[in-house]
Design a protein that fits this description.
By secondary structure, this protein is an alpha/beta fold. Helix content is 39%, strand content 21%.
Length: 314
């Protein structure tokens, strides 16, 4: 698409896994998401997850194997932090990692430390969650902890995905799903422009009749859990991303990658001109300026879902 022809809507970022991975790595490099998420893990994860698993299941001193499932695990920065905390009470862990990006999965493997290899058995699944489910036997063992960080954005049926994850939990097991908050940062952008990154986005850039699959935020998850009558607890943390290059008159690869990830499109600079300017203005509203730099602010919600123990349901 030439710069002079901006009549067609850019393709969804989900259609090009290599470009998605490149854009994701860039936005991660200019943001503090992993840093603040790791701080949340250090300060909050133990009480919300580890202590509750011990209360529900007992600890691992009797040789109990803790079964863990990570979905959309990326390069493992978050999950390895979770596993460090789980190892303090469960010295034997079986961890199944489901990640469609081969490069991110290899980075996850490279991040593993000796203490992980001692107590954890890894099962690497380089595939999508749907592909993973298709290859699971009917009577698969239930799992005790599911990490679904940055996964729910891409499901086609949110209610079905949440019910499937819940059904995979053993009694007393916990699901942790992290997703952007509604009406801040990403949530505000995607709700204002719901066609961004959608497979059914109208080619003229209008916002009608767009599939919601990519723009799922915490508000939609809340609604779905209530409809499914699945109890949940919320926590969360905020993140900042330096995206000054998005607003530069000079086009740059860095600015393009940031825009592509924020909008979940490929080459968003080639979007219809009116839409491009409107989206850029919306992004700017979610930024704070520090000196010459602009930082995009977005909050994240942590949904913690515990499946009742068998005794609790009697």
């Amino acid at each position: 698409m030439s710069k002079s022809d901006k009549s067609a809507m850019p393709r969804p970022l989900s259609e090009d896994l290599a470009h998605y991975t490149k854009a994701f790595k860039y936005i991660a490099s200019v943001g503090d998401y992993f840093e603040v998420a790791q701080k949340w893990t250090e300060e909050t994860f133990y009480g919300h997850v580890v202590e509750k698993l011990v209360a529900n299941l007992g600890d691992g001193t009797d040789g109990k194997l803790l079964r863990v499932l990570g979905i959309g695990s990326g390069s493992g920065e978050l999950e390895l932090g979770f596993l460090n905390k789980l190892l303090t009470k469960f010295p034997k862990i079986q961890n199944c990692v489901v990640e469609p990006s081969e490069s991110l999965l290899k980075k996850y493997e490279a991040n593993i430390k000796p203490e992980h290899e001692t107590g954890i058995t890894f099962d690497w699944q380089n595939r999508t969650f749907d592909e993973f489910l298709e290859n699971q036997p009917e009577n698969s063992q239930k799992v005790h902890f599911i990490s679904a960080c940055n996964f729910l954005y891409y499901v086609k049926d949110l209610n079905e995905a949440l019910q499937t994850l819940y059904d995979m939990l053993a009694p007393g097991g916990i699901l942790l799903a992290i997703i952007t908050a509604d009406y801040t940062g990403y949530g505000k952008l995607w709700r204002t422009f719901p066609s961004l990154g959608c497979e059914t986005a109208p080619q003229d850039g209008s916002q009608d009749n767009a599939s919601p699959s990519h723009r799922i935020d915490a508000g939609y998850v809340r609604d779905a859990l209530r409809q499914l009558q699945i109890p949940y607890h919320e926590d969360g943390f905020a993140g900042n991303y330096k995206i000054t290059e998005c607003f530069s008159d000079e086009e740059s690869e860095e600015g393009n990658l940031a825009l592509d990830f924020l909008t979940h499109t490929i080459r968003f600079r080639d979007a219809p001109s009116d839409l491009f300017q409107q989206v850029l203005a919306c992004i700017k509203e979610s930024c704070v300026q520090r000196g010459d730099e602009r930082y995009f602010q977005s909050k994240n919600v942590c949904f913690l879902i515990t499946k009742p123990t068998e005794s609790a349901t009697q």
